[in-house]
Design a protein that fits this description.
Blueprint lengths: L6 E5 L21 E5 L15 E4 L5 E8 L6 H6 L1 H5 L5 E8 L4 E6 L7 E4 L4 E5 L7 E7 H26 L5 E3 L3 E4 L2 H5 L5 E4 L1 E5 L2 E10 L8 E6 L2 E7 L9 E4 L7 E2 L2 H8 L1
Parallel strand pairs: 1-2, 4-5
Antiparallel strand pairs: 3-4, 5-6, 6-7, 8-9, 10-13, 11-12, 13-14, 14-15, 15-16, 16-17, 17-18
Length: about 280
């Protein structure tokens, strides 16, 4: 199809779905550009939830494409190959596009093959002018996918440490803590730099059978802070933020109500917020 090290330029029309893990700038340019064009009369089919986009190749074949993150096709390729005939769609063939963040490659697989049809080098997504640690400040520091991934991992550790501290504060005061539930973190910054979503813990605090509070992380890249955690209670709640100027050592502050002054989070203020 397209030779190795060429840049892929997507031109399938306005109805193509946004692919958060693949942008035009993510592909290394090493030569001529190849264009994937979608005929207007077939654009409506790209809205189907079974595939990400479709294009017509240089031989005139109509190809359905599914994009996945991973290092190998596994059973996905076999199932995906049957998709058009199972659903009655007029595709000539299917392709599975695998983005491997580990090796920074894009592999294009077709059914019935033991190796990819083509492999492309992925550029590390790089931007300048935005500080990923505090989103409302400007910086000339380079941002890349590795830095965002590192920041996410650090945030997970900080949230887990905070929740362990909260457990230690509330349990001696007659509360029980349920930490079995999680929430997904897949923020815009992560999608922009092709960083995979992660699961974060949440706390459900009970006094007897009554749920006194639910505490969960809201976001890392928030205005005016280096992360935010919300405390929801039957009567309202509170907001916990990391007020540190650096991502390494969090300074947890708590707002007991909108417009109130933030105070340093400690056992006394946390208990007051959930009573």
């Amino acid at each position: 199809m397209l030779k190795d090290h060429r840049k892929l330029v997507f031109e399938p029309g306005g109805s193509r779905r946004t692919l958060p893990n693949l942008r035009q700038s993510d592909i290394l340019s090493g030569g001529d550009e190849g264009h994937l064009e979608l005929p207007d009369q077939r654009e409506e089919q790209t809205n189907d939830p079974g595939y990400d986009f479709a294009y017509t190749d240089p031989d005139g074949q109509f190809v359905a494409v599914q994009v996945k993150l991973g290092s190998g096709p596994g059973k996905t390729l076999e199932k995906w190959a049957r998709f058009p005939s199972d659903r009655g769609y007029p595709f000539d063939r299917t392709e599975l596009w695998l983005l491997d963040r580990g090796s920074l490659t894009l592999q294009i697989w077709s059914a019935g093959r033991n190796e990819p049809d083509a492999q492309f080098g992925l550029a590390e997504v790089v931007e300048t002018g935005v500080n990923p640690d505090i989103s409302n400040r400007r910086s000339s520091q380079k941002i890349d996918s590795a830095r965002v991934e590192e920041r996410v991992a650090r945030w997970v550790e900080q949230v887990e440490a905070l929740f362990t501290q909260i457990e230690g504060w509330v349990e001696p005061n007659g509360y029980s803590v349920d930490r079995t539930q999680t929430v997904s973190m897949n923020e815009e910054m992560m999608q922009r730099f092709a960083v995979a979503a992660v699961r974060l813990p949440m706390l459900r605090i009970r006094k007897g059978t009554r749920v006194a509070a639910t505490i969960f992380p809201v976001g890392l890249w928030v205005i005016g802070a280096n992360g935010r955690v919300d405390v929801l209670t039957p009567s309202g709640g509170a907001t916990i933020i990391n007020a540190s100027d650096t991502p390494n050592d969090p300074i947890w502050m708590i707002y007991s109500s909108p417009g109130s002054k933030a105070v340093r989070l400690d056992q006394q203020h946390l208990i007051a917020a959930i009573q």
